[in-house]
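User: Fold this; tokens only.

Assistant: Input:
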Amino acid sequence: MASYTYLIVIIHFVTNWNSCCGFSEFITKNIFMDKLALMATLKAKKGKEAEVEKFLRDALPLVENEPGTSTWYALKLDEETYIIFDTFTDEKGREEHLTGKVAKALEEKAKDLFSLNPVIEKLDILAVKMPEVIQY
């Protein structure tokens, strides 16, 4: 009888945790690896590097509100080249990001900040080394 009671308590805990804390979303987003990515290459206009870096730092809160974007990186390759790299579990998340607030802000600021139009490439992820990621 005690084992049955423990089983009921565990089922109740998992069910309630799922409904209040998004257990299934946690499992999907934090254990299984993302399959898709984007890489945007940005070339800053001479003298605009500090503004580009501020723009990228200021974009982080916008991306944090995108549930379909799993990871987002703003990187500096050299004095004028910056890269935005982000990952997604599915195509829906990637497309939502491409039409989201950061993409709109990037489009609005492109002529002022960048010497060339941003180059955005869609990538497929083959393998990942991260804590608690299951490779497929």
